[in-house]
Amino acid sequence: MESKRQRLSDNICGFVDIQINGWCGIDFSSPKLTKESCELAFDAIRSSGTAYFMPTVITSPVCDYEHVLPILVQVSNSEKYKDHVLGFHLEGPFISPKDGAVGCHRKEHCKAPDSTLLKHLAQLCKGKLKLITIASELENASQLCKDAVDMGIVVSLGHQLATREDIKTLVAAGATMLTHLGNGMPNLVNRHRNSLMVGMAADELVAGIITDGFHLPVDTIKNILRSKGISRVYITSDAAPVAGMEDGVHECFGKKVIVETNEVGSCVKDAVEPCLAGSGASMMQCVNYLSSLNLVSENEMLDLSFYNPLKFVGIDYTDLVSVPCLIEKRNGKWVAKETL
Q1: Whole-angstrom Cα distance, residue 187 to residue 223?
Q2: Of 159, 180, 50, nearest to 109 (Cα)?
Q3: Predicted pLDDT of residue 5
Q4: β-sheet with 206-210: strand ranges across
Q5: Phi and psi at residue 53, in whole multiples of 5°?
Q6: Which of 259, 280, 270, 250 is nearest to 105 (CA)?
Q7: What is the pLDDT of residues 169-205, one digit of tens each?
Q8: Strand pairing partners for 206?
Q9: What's the confidence (pLDDT) of residue 2?
Q10: Which of 336, 330, 331, 302 is nearest to 317 (CA)?
């Protein structure tokens, strides 16, 4: 098995991203999503070096889920994309509506944990709902978690104001992951008792981190890697629908956001609230940024960006269908191959 893994490492076809909200102005949560625009976004994601991914739908009105999820199912089942799409990630609507924790999600669409609604959303996904992010402190979150796990859905905790007790309760209910640890929380918190600290201390939970150069400072990345260990961390782009677009003000997630580019990369900010609104980076850019920090080896980077996210959502990498190679190494950095 290890020798097969080494051969796959030598010929890795692209990265794995289990949280990507859209691309190039195409929003997977938008009531304006069409089959054609979804296909364009999927093509752009692959062209950016991401071989396998989970389209992610954020907190939305029920009618929007009823519009976008059937489109995502249709496109994901098509011959062109079925080997690339791992399933869907619902980031909400069962998250905290509190300032800071809600992030760029629209708080008016946040829902209390509701297993009936979860089952409706799962039915819309036609078996493709693989991952859901919920806030652990919400009333009835534990029952929702149990019901999700019984349905074969991996439960990740995020966009929350969790205490140690909240985390313990959800772990007992079957939660196994933390969504973009260190983000989706207020800027000002108790210095010792906060969702970042309790998340790092929860040995039962693996953690996702956004390594775009904006979401987490270097020291926080280092602390999460040390507290969890490489084997219990994955990286994600959390790319916003405006990723890949020019600098300026854009419409995104039903609100105005600002895209700004500097020497590090592209940053996406909420135009009103003091928070980021997803990232402007691809997985490849997140990998290259983390590599530049010299915190992990090349083999460890492959774990963080390929093997670990698959394992955490219950996918054996040996079961993946081989796809054309989308990336290559040039001058010490990963770049996208022009194969599409």
Answers
A1: 18
A2: 159
A3: 52
A4: 15-20, 50-58, 88-91, 129-134, 154-157, 177-178, 206-210, 233-236
A5: -155, 165
A6: 270
A7: 999 999 999 999 999 999 999 999 999 999 999 999 9
A8: 177
A9: 47
A10: 302
* Integer Cα distance of 179 and 158 in angstroms: 5
The reply to whether the predicted model has a pTM over 0.85 is yes
Interatomic CA distance for residues 166 and 45, integer angstroms: 36
Write the DSSP string, 288-317. HHHHHTT-S-HHHHHIIIIIHHHHHTT--G
Q: What is the full DSSP assignment across 86-101?
A: --EEEE-SSS--STTT
C-beta atoms surrounding 249 within 10 Å: 11
- State how beta strands 15-20 and 50-58 pair: parallel
- pLDDT recorded at residue 250: 94
Read off the tokens for 121: 């959303």
DSSP letter string, 153-221 = -EEEE-SS---HHHHHHHHHHT--EESSTT-SS-SS--SSSSHHHHHHH-TT-EEEEE-SSSSS-HHHH
Closest to 278 (Cα-Cα) out of 76, 15, 85, 56: 56
